[in-house]
């Protein structure tokens, strides 16, 4: 028996009668026991704080744990710990492992390891065998084994006919097909956003055109196949506009944005910091503003972390030779609370992380009700935190904010079952 | 004498106008030195410099080595176009291995943009960037602007057009920064496939027509066409490039004004400029080469001043 008493928390829980109220919550062995003002109860542990916030447990649509294949960067155990430390009760695991998650046997391996983890691991299967962009995978066999989405992740599907076949073939499964929009020929050897900064740094640019041209193509394919499509990590102003008009035209399109693209721009690359070598790349201030606007008006459905752990050898090197990505699960809330809360309200933030992100793969929002499993994230928005190597539970420390002091901490993530 | 505001020469971007002017006045003195019968001064006799060239270079390396020797520095050379990298050693390890032999300064050429910045943050030595990918080549821009100052007395107010492969050129980028800091106006000219889409954001105008560009400018800096840097074709043939962007005497003589021709070398004679232009009074190409040694002496001298000894 273990009882937890959360005192005086502001509850941000869209759809709950407690939404925006301040209350105490008692959780006993992962079950919500009581909710109310000034509860008086014996508890094994009391959580207090100056500015506690209680939200439904978060769901991240976009994480790479590199297990199997690159367990030196992350494995399912360390990735789950990082997720929990970052406020996530649930994650959607990308299939970019080695071998790729493209068959029942790899799905079963991941499920086996995931059983031991505190975080609920949902699995996205590969859309093409080996993520090679050639042949479609055994979608239904993998679905029976437990996958909930299909994607070739960042090996963006270049062949329009393949995407057409994937959309048609998988439609009956009801699983979302996720596309990372990127035309490889326009991005060839690209290192960062093409713009004033890339010109001034002499780095090969990745034009936002590469994303937009593919976005338009994929939307046309979705329309042709009459099948929904989800875009992972969009990054440009024009992309927001393209998706907005597609939604207005009734095409079943959804998308998410990684928080790095909400918090940073290509200007931050001035010192060639390889921790900011990201795909999609950080773009301009105008793009960043448009992404925030897109979240507010509903064009963008969810916020994700695009957690991409890389070992130091892949990052502490010349920019051209460094790997893409950031170990980003654990700094979402500190970064949001320090830099973004004036632009994106906490209600909207929680909605995009806990409610809408789940809807995209057909999961219900956890409930805040007495007698129900407690799946909650507890924050303290007033507490400062120094981001250092010990702070990050991820095996990889490729995080831009390493060494900074930020304001806002995930106090506890509870994943009651 | 005052000091530079920087500890390394990583690019022109990080320099102030005062830094550049200090380098120029210091170079004036060294230019006198290298024209004397005894071309050598003892200024850096307690300094060891490693020239690390991770990319082929003949003249920049030679120019640096002469500058170092005329300052009486001890010099070691390391050329490894990819060889140590092929063995899997990282750049930091390679350089730290050399620094472990007690080297005070590193002059580095490297194929990747930002390599000098990266090195300056990871090793304990003064770094001089001798060219990092398509990023910067600061000593080239300093010697180019120094040569303009020498010919015209001042860089302020001059109109300079840079012609050729702008997109792959560290010379173009460093020249743009240096010329702008010194008050010159810059245009770029060349096939549009070789001009960065966002170059105008750097305060530079694009002129695709060579004749119009030449009619506008005081100075034309003709970049070398670096076919070795092009993994795909940005223009169909050298022949057509020369037809549209090559400068010959006939073209120069048909202009309504005098234009000074510069070239960072090595020249592809008959491609960027014809021999009669290269060897004419319009060209200051060999002055650039001579000034290169004086400028590099000045840079090394001023950075060595900042080493506690």
TrEMBL record, chain A:
Q: Which domain of life is it from?
A: Bacteria
Q: Which GO terms describe its cellular component?
A: cytoplasm
Q: Keywords assigned by UniProt?
A: Pyrimidine biosynthesis
List, for all copies, the residue spans of the domain called Dihydroorotase catalytic.
53-239
A GO biological process of this protein is: purine nucleobase catabolic process
Q: Which GO terms describe its molecular function?
A: allantoinase activity; dihydroorotase activity; metal ion binding
Show the NCBIfam families listed in the entry: pyrC_multi
Protein name in the entry: Dihydroorotase
* Biological classification of the source: Bacteria, Pseudomonadati, Bacteroidota, Flavobacteriia, Flavobacteriales
TrEMBL record, chain B:
Q: What is its EC number?
A: 2.1.3.2
Q: Name one Pfam family in it.
A: OTCace_N
UniProt binding sites for L-aspartate = 87, 170, 224
**Which keywords belong to this entry?**
Pyrimidine biosynthesis, Transferase
User: What reactions does this protein catalyze?
Assistant: carbamoyl phosphate + L-aspartate = N-carbamoyl-L-aspartate + phosphate + H(+)
Which positions in this protein are listed as binding carbamoyl phosphate?
59-60, 109, 137, 140, 265-266
Annotated family = Belongs to the aspartate/ornithine carbamoyltransferase superfamily. ATCase family.
Q: What is this protein called?
A: Aspartate carbamoyltransferase
């Amino acid at each position: 028996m273990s009882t937890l008493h959360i005192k005086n928390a502001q509850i941000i829980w869209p759809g709950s009668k407690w939404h925006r109220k301040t209350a105490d919550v008692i959780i006993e062995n992962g079950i919500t026991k009581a909710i109310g003002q000034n509860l008086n109860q014996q508890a094994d542990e009391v959580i207090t704080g100056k500015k506690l916030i209680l939200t439904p447990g978060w769901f991240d649509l976009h994480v790479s744990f590199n297990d199997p294949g690159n367990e030196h960067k992350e494995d399912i155990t360390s990735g789950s710990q990082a997720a929990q430390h970052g406020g996530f009760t649930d994650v959607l695991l990308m299939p970019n492992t080695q071998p790729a998650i493209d068959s029942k046997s790899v799905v079963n391996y991941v499920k086996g390891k995931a059983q031991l983890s505190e975080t609920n691991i949902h699995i996205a299967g590969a859309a093409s065998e080996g993520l090679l962009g050639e042949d479609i995978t055994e979608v239904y066999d993998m679905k029976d084994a437990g996958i909930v989405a299909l994607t070739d992740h960042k090996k963006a599907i270049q062949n329009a006919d393949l995407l057409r076949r994937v959309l048609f073939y998988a439609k009956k499964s009801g699983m979302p097909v996720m596309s990372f929009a990127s035309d490889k020929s326009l991005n060839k050897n690209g290192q960062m956003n093409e713009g004033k900064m890339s010109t001034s740094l002499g780095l090969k640019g990745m034009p936002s055109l590469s994303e937009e041209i593919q976005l338009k193509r994929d939307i046309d394919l979705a329309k042709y196949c009459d099948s929904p499509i989800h875009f992972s990590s969009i990054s440009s102003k024009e992309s927001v506009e393209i998706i907005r008009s597609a939604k207005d035209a009734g095409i079943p399109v959804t998308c998410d944005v990684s928080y790095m693209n909400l918090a940073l721009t290509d200007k931050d690359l001035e010192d060639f910091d390889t921790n900011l070598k990201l795909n999609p790349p950080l773009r301009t201030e105008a793009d960043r503003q448009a992404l925030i606007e897109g979240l507010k008006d509903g064009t963008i459905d969810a916020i994700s972390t695009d957690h991409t752990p890389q070992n130091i050898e892949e990052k502490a090197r010349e920019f051209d030779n460094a790997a893409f990505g950031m170990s980003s699960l654990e700094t979402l809330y500190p970064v949001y609370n320090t830099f973004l809360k004036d632009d994106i309200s906490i209600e909207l933030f929680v909605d995009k992380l806990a409610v809408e992100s789940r809807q995209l793969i057909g999961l219900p929002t956890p409930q805040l009700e007495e007698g129900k499993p407690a799946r909650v994230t507890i924050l303290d928005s007033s507490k400062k935190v120094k981001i250092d190597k010990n702070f990050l539970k991820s095996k990889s420390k490729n995080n831009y904010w390493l060494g900074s002091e930020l304001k806002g901490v995930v106090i506890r993530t509870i994943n009651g079952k | 004498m005052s000091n530079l505001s920087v500890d390394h020469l990583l690019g022109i971007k990080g320099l102030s106008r005062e830094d550049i002017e200090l380098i120029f006045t210091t170079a004036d003195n060294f230019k006198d030195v290298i024209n004397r019968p005894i071309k050598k001064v003892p200024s850096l006799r307690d300094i060891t410099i490693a020239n690390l060239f991770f990319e082929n270079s003949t003249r920049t390396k030679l120019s640096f080595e002469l500058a170092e020797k005329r300052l009486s520095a001890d010099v070691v050379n390391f050329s490894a176009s990819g060889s140590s990298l092929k063995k899997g050693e990282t750049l930091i390890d390679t350089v730290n291995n050399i620094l472990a032999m007690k080297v005070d300064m590193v002059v580095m050429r490297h194929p990747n943009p930002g390599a000098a910045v990266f090195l300056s943050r990871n090793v304990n030595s003064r770094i001089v960037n001798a060219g990092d990918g398509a990023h910067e080549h600061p000593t080239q821009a300093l010697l180019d602007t120094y040569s303009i100052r020498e010919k015209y007395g001042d860089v302020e107010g001059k109109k300079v057009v840079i012609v050729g492969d702008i997109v792959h050129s560290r010379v173009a980028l460093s020249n743009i920064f240096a010329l702008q800091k010194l008050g010159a106006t810059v245009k770029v000219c060349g096939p549009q496939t070789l001009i960065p889409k966002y170059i105008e954001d750097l305060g530079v105008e694009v002129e695709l027509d060579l004749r119009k560009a030449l009619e506008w400018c005081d100075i034309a800096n003709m970049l070398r066409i670096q076919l070795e840097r092009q993994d795909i074709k940005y223009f169909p043939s050298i022949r057509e490039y020369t037809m549209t962007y090559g400068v010959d005497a006939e073209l120069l003589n048909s202009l309504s004004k005098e234009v000074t021709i510069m070239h960072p070398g090595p020249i592809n004679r008959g491609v960027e400029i014809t021999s009669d232009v290269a060897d004419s009074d319009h060209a200051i190409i060999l002055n650039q080469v001579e000034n290169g040694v004086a400028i590099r002496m000045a840079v090394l001298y001023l950075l060595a001043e900042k080493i506690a000894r």
